[in-house]
Design a protein that fits this description.
alpha+beta, Dna Ligase, domain 1, 3 domains, five-stranded mixed sheet
Length: 405
């Protein structure tokens, strides 16, 4: 039996959650991300805001120029994650395998669980209905024979849409005369290269497939296959161990020249990395430091170490890396671990074998946090869980920047 895939995509997810919880926001241009007075970008926006040309990843200053009368707010990412988990519980009931692309988007393989095209379409309609009834949110759903076609289908009638693409022939008929960007692997740069070759539509890709393969190689082969409706990829459940790194970074509202402050910030970022690594049960065999300077030049420094996810160890290594970089005004700082591995088979350091190792690590972390608390007038005791919720870490670090003495 040919595979049947459902693609679910929430409609303006973050904004929709906020509108659900505060109906007074309905019908107004809502922009979630940074505030107009801050540095940063748009995380997402309502459909009313999109009418003004605002989109995700747009500089917040540009968004404000386009829509000065919009409502701007920080996102509550802990709330969005909780809603996402509830949505996943609904969707997972219908799928034999599921692949989450983000908090608000997923591919569901219903080939075996549905058993027929008709029942798969019934599943898709139930998903839409339950998402609305149980979470008060709308989603767009596509049912198709492949992942590419399913995503195309979910986009076809957005927002709150439903569309079916049963066969490759149906897919081709739908997209044949559309812009090459309709193929989701064709980004802006690839489209620009194709346009320079005189290739602007999917039909052009079909007629010029030899030229495309000659110039683009393997990528060209994939593009031409999609243009003919060929996509045999399976729904691949996400596994934390497939991640290449775990990191946390932060953009300051004003450039920071005080590297002592950067050192203090790295402690909190290291704790955040440790917590993320603990949630997925992974360790890193290397530590990275990332800086973006005032002139927007970014540098990354890394160092291989014995396997760890200890915040103290991440912090210590990041500080060593910080000591080796040019001291110029910094716009963004980040820390992380890479070369990830699970508990099984990892090489432990000798000091980890000591019975009191974890206790000593916790004591050292407590001393470092007390040092930060004394310096900035903050009390971290028993409050770390709150510090790393939503925007609290950002606000804490901005407070530290303003009160560095």
């Amino acid at each position: 039996m040919a595979q049947i895939i459902i693609h679910v995509d929430m409609d303006a997810f973050f904004a929709s959650v906020e509108i659900r919880d505060n109906p007074s926001l309905r019908g107004v241009p809502l922009i979630i991300g940074s505030l107009p007075s801050e540095r940063g970008v748009v995380a997402t926006c309502s459909y009313e805001a999109r009418k003004f040309g605002i989109h995700s990843a747009m500089n917040i200053k540009e968004a404000y120029r386009l829509c000065p009368h919009g409502v701007y707010m920080h996102g509550n990412y802990e709330k969005y994650r909780a809603v996402s988990n509830a949505l996943h519980e609904i969707w997972n009931e219908y799928a034999a395998a599921y692949e989450y692309i983000a908090l608000d988007e997923a591919y569901l393989d219903v080939t075996e669980s549905a058993g027929s095209w008709e029942r798969a379409c019934e599943f898709a309609r139930r998903i839409k209905q339950r998402t609305l009834e149980e979470q008060g949110l709308t989603c767009s759903v596509g049912v198709a024979y492949s992942k590419t076609a399913a995503k195309t289908a979910s986009e076809e009638k957005k927002p709150n849409g439903y569309f079916e693409i049963p066969t490759p022939e149906d897919f081709i008929r739908l997209i044949i005369d559309r812009d090459v960007r309709v193929l989701y692997t064709v980004g802006a740069k690839t489209a620009e290269k194709l346009n320079r070759m005189g290739i602007r539509t999917v039909r052009d890709i079909q007629t010029r497939q030899d030229d495309i393969i000659r110039i683009f190689g393997k990528q060209g082969q994939w593009i031409t296959q999609l243009a003919f409706g060929i996509d045999d990829r399976k729904v691949s459940p996400y596994r934390p161990e497939d991640a290449k790194s775990i990191s946390r970074e932060l953009t300051f509202q004003e450039d920071v020249s005080d590297f002592g402050l950067l050192s203090d910030v790295l402690l909190l970022l290291a704790i955040s990395v440790e917590r993320r690594a603990e949630r997925v049960g992974l360790y890193g065999e290397g530590v990275t430091l990332k800086l973006t300077y005032k002139d927007m030049k970014s540098i990354t420094r890394s160092r291989l170490i014995p396997s760890t996810r200890s915040a103290v160890r991440i912090y210590e290594e990041a500080i060593r890396l910080l000591d080796q970089v040019p001291q110029r005004p910094v716009r963004l700082v980040g820390a992380g671990i890479y070369h990830l591995t699970g508990e099984y088979g990892r090489q432990m350091r000798m000091d980890e074998l000591m019975p009191d190792f974890r206790e000593r690590q916790q004591e050292k972390l407590a001393r470092e946090l007390k040092r930060l608390g004394d310096r900035y007038g903050l009390d971290f005791a028993g409050k770390l869980d709150k510090v790393f919720q939503g925007e609290t870490l950002y606000r804490t670090i901005e407070y530290m920047r303003r009160h560095r003495g």
